[in-house]
């Protein structure tokens, strides 16, 4: 299997073949998802919450994300690896966006970058695409704007649907190869998907997108607390790991580990 490229994703949309994307932030997760045939791996700025233990995605820096990108790309042979640009590293100007994206491509070994925003980010998207960097856009609920959007809530309901459609068309016109739609009503996401030539990737955007994305620690049951409604849990890794850690500690305390077979 050859490495996925953006033109292949476009062909899959034309063929009506949905594809899958997951986040990844380290070697083994990346290797496993790559082997499973996940077409796109996103080194999300959600590493803020899922790797670094921050409360939101706002604090994570370019310097914190680049080494994760490098690990993910090195661990994969098939997946297209997308680097998420963190808050504050691209909104300032197209040149700032370009300089940041170049770092992720050169030092992070990413194949594409992702940034949040619709029509207002069109100059940034255009600048990167002109510079040879494929761009994935992200509209609807955009976590980096949590404070101006008034918290985690569905975007594009009612009258706001027209703005979401306009954002989707704007990022396509600016040259994005795909667009994530987060927490957008299913019928609005479906209409956008029909209208666009580029792939739409849903997260809390219903079933009629060209692709879906989830954060892997959410869908594999690693994280604690209540999951968002749009997450389906496919595994319970937290209990698996908790049981293993407890069994190991018990064995050490009782002397059951190491046994003769573990001893030189
Ligand atoms: O950072 C992230 O995990 C994301 C996806 C949820 C799309 O942006
Ligand atoms: Na993100």
TrEMBL record:
Name of the molecule in the record: 3-methyl-2-oxobutanoate hydroxymethyltransferase
Residues annotated to bind 3-methyl-2-oxobutanoate: 45-46, 84, 114
GO MF, one annotated term: 3-methyl-2-oxobutanoate hydroxymethyltransferase activity
Pfam families named among the record's database cross-references: Pantoate_transf
Family indicated by similarity: Belongs to the PanB family.
EC number: 2.1.2.11
Subunit structure: Homodecamer; pentamer of dimers.
UniProt pathway annotation: Cofactor biosynthesis; (R)-pantothenate biosynthesis; (R)-pantoate from 3-methyl-2-oxobutanoate: step 1/2
Assigned keywords, A-Z: Cytoplasm, Magnesium, Metal-binding, Methyltransferase, Pantothenate biosynthesis, Transferase
Biological role: Catalyzes the reversible reaction in which hydroxymethyl group from 5,10-methylenetetrahydrofolate is transferred onto alpha-ketoisovalerate to form ketopantoate.
Annotated Gene Ontology cellular component terms: cytoplasm
Reactions listed under catalytic activity: (6R)-5,10-methylene-5,6,7,8-tetrahydrofolate + 3-methyl-2-oxobutanoate + H2O = 2-dehydropantoate + (6S)-5,6,7,8-tetrahydrofolate
Residues binding Mg(2+): 45, 84, 116
Gene name for this UniProt entry: panB
SUPFAM superfamilies noted in UniProt: Phosphoenolpyruvate/pyruvate domain (SSF51621)
Intracellular or extracellular location(s): Cytoplasm
Cofactor: record remark: Binds 1 Mg(2+) ion per subunit.
Any Gene Ontology biological process: pantothenate biosynthetic process
Cofactor: Mg(2+)
Active site, renumbered: 182 (proton acceptor)
């Amino acid at each position: 299997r050859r490495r996925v490229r953006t033109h292949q994703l476009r062909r899959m949309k034309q063929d009506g073949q949905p594809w899958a994307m997951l986040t990844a932030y380290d070697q083994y997760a990346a290797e496993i998802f790559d082997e499973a045939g996940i077409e796109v791996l996103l080194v999300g700025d959600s590493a803020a919450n899922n790797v670094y233990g921050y409360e939101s995605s706002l604090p994570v820096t370019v310097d914190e994300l680049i080494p994760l990108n490098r690990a993910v790309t090195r661990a994969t042979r098939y997946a297209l690896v997308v680097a998420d640009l963190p808050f504050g590293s691209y909104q300032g100007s197209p040149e700032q966006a370009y300089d940041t994206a170049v770092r992720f491509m050169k030092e992070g070994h990413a194949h594409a970058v992702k940034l949040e925003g619709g029509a207002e980010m069109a100059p940034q998207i255009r600048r990167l695409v002109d510079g040879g960097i494929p761009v994935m856009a992200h509209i609807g609920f955009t976590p980096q704007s949590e404070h101006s959007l008034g918290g985690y809530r569905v975007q594009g309901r009612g009258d706001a649907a027209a703005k979401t459609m306009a954002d989707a068309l704007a990022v396509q016109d600016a040259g994005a190869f795909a667009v994530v739609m987060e927490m957008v009503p299913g019928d609005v996401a479906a209409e956008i998907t029909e209208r666009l030539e580029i792939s739409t990737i849903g997260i809390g955007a219903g079933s009629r997108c060209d692709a879906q994305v989830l954060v892997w620690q959410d869908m594999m049951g690693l994280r604690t607390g209540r999951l968002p409604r749009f997450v389906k849990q496919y595994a319970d890794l937290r209990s698996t790991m908790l049981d293993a850690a407890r069994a190991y500690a018990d064995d050490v305390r009782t002397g059951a580990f190491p046994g003769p077979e573990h001893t030189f």
